[in-house]
Amino acid sequence: MTPITEVEGRRVALSNLDKVLYPATGFTKGEVLHYYATTAEVLLPHLRDRPVSFLRYPDGPEGQVFFTKNVPPGTPDWVTTAEVPRSEGPARMVLVQDLASLMWAANLVTEFHTPQWVIGAPGLADRLVFDLDPGAPATVVECCEVAMWLRERLAADGIDAYVKTSGAKGLHLLAGVEPVSSERATEYAKELAVEAEKALPRLVVHRMTRSLRPGKVFVDWSQNAARKTTATPYTLRARSEPGVSAPVTWEEVEACRSPRQLALLAPDMGPRLRDHGDLLAPLLGPEHSAPLP
């Protein structure tokens, strides 16, 4: 029988707790659920009011991996859902608003991906994002150099940038902005990506064309589009190891000389949270939001 756990007064079925999901380390589904339970205090504020796209990997990253945007079948009626506008017509999506909903969703074995807008204002961006994706042989080390340039460029426009690992190969830069259309946020992000390529031609490419990317960092500005989503801070990723999309300090970025320095895994997060708290907490308050120029 599937164990039933009570979470904040809700009955949540938690299944296959001994199943190994990350073969490189033997990290089990039970450990995945424990990770989400112990990081919920910092994760939930970044999920709240943002419709979630689930990238599911129920048999681990070597099994079937698939996106689920609509409310999954069997979703409990106490999980908050909302209608979300889409070009092909409105859809109903999940909002992970509380610990019980988080644990239900984590039991699906999923990455959490969210847009740069909240459900009360769809298509009105309150965050700016740059996804720095290295093309081999470039690594996160080269991403760090690009991130430092973008941080200074954003600061010149009065915008404070924060940084996290992607949980895979690269980095994500995030900034809080005064609400602006997703189209304008995308346009501004592209402008900066083009500037970065001109300033760092040996390092940066702003176009997705695969043939341009070896040895360079693709500055993906397109994730600011209203229809796009980015890995939510603190989500686990579907990789061979339980990598986390983990906030890091700018000091760590500046000092990075090896990819392993920023390869942060689920067991690393407890000590980091005790030492740093939520490094992305400023993104949660409007007082840290800046207008786009």
How would you describe what is shown here?
- It is a single chain.
- The chain has six helices and 16 strands.
- The protein is an alpha+beta fold.
- A hairpin with a 2-residue loop joins strand 1 (4-7) and strand 2.
- Helix 1 (29-47) crosses helix 6.
- The radius of gyration is 19 Å and the shape is globular.
How is the topology of this model organized?
Blueprint: E1 4-7, E2 10-13, E3 20-22, E4 27-28, H1 29-47, E5 53-56, E6 66-68, E7 81-84, E8 91-94, H2 99-107, E9 110-114, E10 124-134, H3 140-156, E11 162-165, E12 171-181, H4 182-199, E13 204-205, E14 217-220, E15 230-231, E16 247-248, H5 250-255, H6 266-276
Parallel strand pairs: 13-14
Antiparallel strand pairs: 1-2, 3-4, 5-6, 5-9, 7-8, 9-15, 10-12, 10-14, 11-12, 11-16
Helix pairs in contact: 1-2, 1-6
Largest sheet: 6 strands, mixed
**Number of DSSP strand runs:** 16
The helix fraction, in percent, is 25-40%
Structural class: alpha+beta
Strand order, sheet with most strands: 13-14-10-12-11-16
Sum up the overall morphology in one term: globular
Radius of gyration from the alpha-carbon trace, in angstroms: 19 Å
Task: Throw out a few tags for this protein.
6-stranded mixed beta sheet, alpha+beta, 6 helices, 24% strand, 293 residues, 27% helix, single chain
